Amino acid sequence: MLAHQQHQNVSELASLNWPLIKKLNFSQQLDHKEIVSLRKLHEQTLVIEKHQDFLSQNNIRNQFIVINQGWACRYSTLSNGNRQLINFYLPGDIINPYTIAATNGTHSVFSITSLYISPFDQEALQQLLTLSPKLDSLYKQMICAEEAMLAEHVVRVGRRSAYQRTIHLLLELYQRLDIIGHTQQNTFNLPLTQELLADMLGMSIVHMNRTLHRLRDEDLIETQSNKISLLDIHKLEQLAEYQGILLDTKLAAQG
Amino acid sequence: MLAHQQHQNVSELASLNWPLIKKLNFSQQLDHKEIVSLRKLHEQTLVIEKHQDFLSQNNIRNQFIVINQGWACRYSTLSNGNRQLINFYLPGDIINPYTIAATNGTHSVFSITSLYISPFDQEALQQLLTLSPKLDSLYKQMICAEEAMLAEHVVRVGRRSAYQRTIHLLLELYQRLDIIGHTQQNTFNLPLTQELLADMLGMSIVHMNRTLHRLRDEDLIETQSNKISLLDIHKLEQLAEYQGILLDTKLAAQG
DNA sequence: CGCTAGGTTGAATACGCTCAAAGATCGTGG
DNA sequence: CCACGATCTTTGAGCGTATTCAACCTAGCG
Q1: Which of A74, A102, A202 sits opposite B246 (nearest CB)?
Q2: pLDDT, tens digit, for every residue of A17-56?
Q3: Which of B96, B144, B155 lies at the smallest CB-CB distance from A76?
Q4: DSSP letter for each residue of A146-209
Q5: CATH 1.10.10.10 is the classification of domain A46-121
Q6: Which of A155, A206, A128, A168 lies closest to B107 in space, CA to CA?
Q7: Start-end of H helices in chain B
Q8: If residue B74 lies in a helix (H) or strand (E), which one and from where to where?
Q9: Domain A132-240: top CATH class
Q10: Residue B97 in contact with residue B64, Cβ under 8 Å?
């Protein structure tokens, strides 16, 4: 995975505190004008306490939301109490309220940690993309990457063993966090309980615990409080057949 | 589920032989001009034989593809031979080659039956959406619905029993096929082997067989050759907690 | 008529679940 | 600063859903 790129000046460097801008800049270096337009999406900021269902059937306000800090997730709960997490929203990710709404009220979005977010209108985004073909292309690329991760999640949950699933998810999180500079060496902050991990991977808490234990025993991971270290990424990638998502693809354009 | 809508004249009626147009017209009635623009996406048509990997790492041509007839699927194969289907492409669906590419070559698209397809350039689509806000909105709605179905697929595979999974998928297929007029009463053509169904739902062929058998024993479904009938949709929806996807949502606009 | 792909059935096994209970950790208030 | 409660983690044991292996059946097609 690539090292972080260089930047021109202090003002732009400060803009990279906005993880969305940092993420897009990682894909393809942004110029001053593009950074300025992207900052406009962050004009409004607000805080959401942790453990809140802040987006569901009841309170959809037709605004897009970019995560500036913290983790959230989309999930669905079945009548027997079973919960399945669908995806994580990490800093720099954009929540499209219409995909939540399209499921007829069965999906909600939940703040795993406290959140700093910026809601914005769809028109603001649309305008920005219309004015800059490069941002338009990068945005589409981002959507494709998200779709691809969701597709990989299906494969993970459908056909991988609990052991592989766990490794695969950890590697994906590592890759995503690395892009926004949220890793130190092979270590990153993982604000998930084993219950959340289990609900993401479609397994029980007990088995999640045993799987993590096994990974620790095998010296593949190390955990302390909320920190997790991947001790042998190459081996983990082989074990889980992790290929990675093309987040910085050189593909021409997307739709 | 809604009845099919009325149409103005013979020419437009003929256009509804193109399932993409029929599907969009189902969401929101199209006028003559919109139908004409959509027909332009169908200028080129070609046939693909069944059981072909016609889109994979090797042969991505950066063209979008609309399915006019037949079924295809996106899938991934693991090194142990396990295969997971990610989604079905039915008539009227559009394949975005960039989402396939974003998975770094792990996903391919396969023709389940022989196919009639129309490839088109992304620019053609872009132009059409720029000129018509209504089509733009409908297209985004379609993308959201697809994303929502993929998300529901995660839930299905992750947290539902084999029995519920099977029912849930059958209901979703029924809903999608109904929109393009590919159902007769509660019956539709299901060109899937039990192996494909099993690979879609993350289960073994043997268990797929037993589950279908149980559904037949319980008088919930009836099969003959490739036809399947859902004998009590209401009960099936309850059993699987099927909520349906909002394919004809009245939501304002999407991104 | 025989081949092949797909469907069906039985039996043994296993992966992961449920139930249950005991530790550990963290935040909070006394 | 300690104690307490709540949440999260860990461990054991029994069980069940779904898998694997293996064989046989059926239908369609050359």
Answers
A1: A102
A2: 899 999 999 999 999 999 999 999 999 999 999 999 999 9
A3: B155
A4: HHHHHHHHHHHHHHS-HHHHHHHHHHHHHHHHHHTT-EETTEEE----HHHHHHHHT--HHHHH
A5: no
A6: A155
A7: 10-15, 19-27, 32-40, 97-101, 122-131, 133-159, 162-179, 194-201, 205-217, 233-240
A8: strand B72-77
A9: mainly alpha
A10: yes
CA distance A224 to B110: 45
Specify which residue's alpha carbon is closest to the C1' of nucleotide C19.
Answer: A206
Crossing angle of helices A133-159/A32-40, nearest 10°? 60
- What pLDDT, in 10s, does the model give residues B14-53? 777 899 999 999 999 999 999 999 999 999 999 999 999 9
* CA–C1' gap, B202 and D8, in angstroms: 31
CA neighbor of B248 nearest in space, from B16, B26, B76, B73: B26
Q: What single-letter amino acid sits at B198?
A: A
Assign A249 a pLDDT band (cuts: 50, 70, 90).
low
- The DSSP 8-state label assigned to residue B4 in this structure reads P
Question: Is there a contact between A158 and B253 if contact means CB atoms under 8 Å apart?
Answer: no
User: Rg of the Cα trace of chain B?
Assistant: 18
d(CA B85, CA A175): 24
Nucleotide nearest B161, from its CA to each C1': D17
| Single-letter code of the amino acid located at B190 | L
Which residues from A are below 8 Å from B83, CB to CB?
159
Residue B154: exposure state from Cβ atoms within 10 A (0-12, 13-18, ≥19): buried
Q: What Å value separates CA A244 and C1' C19?
A: 38
Whether residue B201 contacts residue B114, with contact meaning beta carbons closer than 8 Å, is answered with no
Torsion sign over Cα A241, A76, A204, B238: negative
Q: Within 7 Å: CB of B193 and strand C?
A: yes
The distance of A145 to chain B (nearest Cα, Å) reads 6
Q: What is the pLDDT of residue B1?
A: 42
Question: Residue A225: which pLDDT band, with cuts at 50, 70 and 90?
Answer: confident
Q: Which residues of A touch B168 (CB under 8 A)?
A: none
Tokens of A197: 């991990």
* Residue B185 DSSP SS3: coil
- In this complex, which of B104, B106, B122 lies closest to A253 when CB atoms are compared? B122
A247/B137: higher pLDDT? B137
Delimit the CATH 2.60.120.10 region(s) of chain A: 46-121
Q: What is the pLDDT at residue B249?
A: 52
Q: Integer distance in angstroms from CA B206 to C1' C13?
A: 15
The verdict on domain B125-240 having CATH code 3.40.50.620 is: no
Please give the Cα distance from A164 to A202 (Å, whole number): 13
Identify the closest residue of chain A to B140 by CA–CA distance.
A98
List the nucleotides on chain C closer than 7 A to a protein CB.
Answer: 5-11, 15-20, 25-26
CA angle B249, B128, B9 (to 5 degrees): 70
